[in-house]
Design a protein that fits this description.
Layout lengths: L1 H14 L6 E7 L2 E12 L4 E8 L8 H16 L4 E4 L6 H9 L5
Parallel strand pairs: 3-4
Antiparallel strand pairs: 1-2, 2-3
Length: 106
């Protein structure tokens, strides 16, 4: 399953100290649905760059909208970030629509 493989890959990167500074599994209805986190963080300027991935069978359920909303709150309130950025592949229409829906600008 691609979801499990993605999680294993992230965990391996973390163990090898190559992983994302803050990355989380997304659990939906008792199953690992995907991952979300800060791919990069500039501690000087307090800017975090978000990355996310959701298994195809979980898409269209509002799962990532809830997860991203929670991560944004965490970034600003708990980590004290000044800015949160999201880089999205132009051809990925679903992924591109999410930050736009949440008020991110280009």
């Amino acid at each position: 399953e691609d979801t499990a493989q993605n999680i294993k890959s992230r965990l391996k990167e973390y163990v090898e100290n190559r992983g994302y500074p803050k990355s989380f599994a997304i659990i939906y209805k008792g199953k690992i649905a995907g991952t979300i986190g800060f791919n990069d963080m500039n501690k000087t300027s307090k800017i975090g760059e978000v990355g996310y991935w959701l298994g195809e069978q979980f898409q269209g359920e509002g799962v990532m909208t809830k997860a991203l909303t929670a991560l944004i709150h965490y970034g600003f309130e708990e980590l004290g970030l000044n800015r949160i950025q999201i880089k999205v592949a132009v051809e990925n229409k679903k992924s591109k629509a999410l930050p736009e829906r949440l008020g991110f600008t280009k």
